[in-house]
From TrEMBL:
It comes from Speluncibacter jeojiensis. Belongs to the UPF0126 family. The chain crosses the membrane at residues 52-70, 82-102, 114-133, 139-159, 171-190, 196-215. The lineage of its organism: Bacteria, Bacillati, Actinomycetota, Actinomycetes, Mycobacteriales. The keyword Transmembrane helix applies. It is a multi-pass membrane protein. Its main location: membrane. Keywords: Cell membrane, Membrane, Transmembrane, Transmembrane helix. It is found in: Cell membrane. This is TRIC cation channel family protein.
Length: 263
């Protein structure tokens, strides 16, 4: 106990700093706050809600807010800024509380619209911070684009997996990943043209935000992959393919719920 008290009273141990500007901090905070709001809203959506407690929803907000930034910083070999700047966690919890308090029974379309709008807002910001940080570490173009994609999407991946939902990165999602890729490319082009950090960020954000909103409004989607030939799902969701179907009679195929004419 005395050791704990000594550690807590040591000047080097405290609540950390609260920084809001400098070294991408403002952009990072904007993205973290909006993603935290998104995390709470997402946890309340019928397709994601799993009888979460209030603490559970706040954790979803925190994961959504800092999950992508932490993943990005770890990949770049940095101590995540979310753990050294207390403003990140406080902001995420506040935004999570706001998301939780948004009415669930009333204004369903408004809340869903708010979620989509805030996603469109945070996606390019997190992308810009990721690709710019990667460039500062002299990461090659393709690697920088990959970091630009991981930053804004990792938090959503964790939330989807936690809710037992197929991650949005792998299914149709109004060009979710494509928006991050194109925003990264827009920033790289602007930076290579000598626009400077601020203008490169503003140009890339304007492009990414407009592209995402347009994709949502117009219903743009990635093309679906073709269904592999010879793959059929049985009632237990296990695939029946190749040798498992070979030699079966038409009666056996029909008992499996398959059409013999397709074999």
């Amino acid at each position: 106990m005395s050791t704990l008290i000594t550690a807590l009273t040591t000047p080097d141990v405290g609540f950390g700093s609260f920084k809001f500007t400098g070294e991408h901090t403002m952009f990072d905070l904007i993205a973290a706050g909006t993603n935290a709001l998104n995390g709470a809203l997402l946890a309340r959506r019928p397709d994601h809600f799993r009888n979460f407690t209030i603490i559970g929803i706040m954790l979803m907000a925190l994961i959504g807010g800092i999950g992508g930034g932490v993943s990005r910083d770890v990949l770049l070999g940095e101590i995540p800024s979310a753990f050294t700047n207390s403003a990140f966690i406080v902001l995420c919890l506040v935004c999570g509380l706001v998301g939780y308090c948004v009415s669930f029974a009333r204004g369903q379309l408004f809340r869903e619209g708010l979620f989509q709008f805030m996603t469109s807002l945070s996606l390019p910001w997190y992308t810009i911070v990721g690709v710019s940080k990667a460039s500062e570490h002299d990461i090659p173009v393709l690697g920088a684009i990959a970091i630009g994609v991981i930053g804004p999407t990792a938090g959503r991946y964790i939330i989807d997996v936690s809710c037992g939902v197929t991650p949005k990165q792998f299914i149709r999602g109004e060009l979710f990943v494509t928006t991050a890729i194109l925003t990264s490319i827009a920033w790289l082009i602007a930076d290579a043209a000598g626009a400077g950090n601020l203008w490169s960020a503003l140009i890339a954000f304007a492009f990414g935000f407009a592209f995402r909103l347009t994709a949502l409004y117009r219903g743009w989607e990635e093309p679906l992959a073709s269904v592999p030939k010879g793959v059929y799902l049985h009632e237990d969701k296990r695939p029946l393919l190749g040798r498992k179907l070979k030699g079966k009679s038409e009666t056996e195929l029909r008992m499996l719920g398959l059409d013999p004419d397709q074999h």
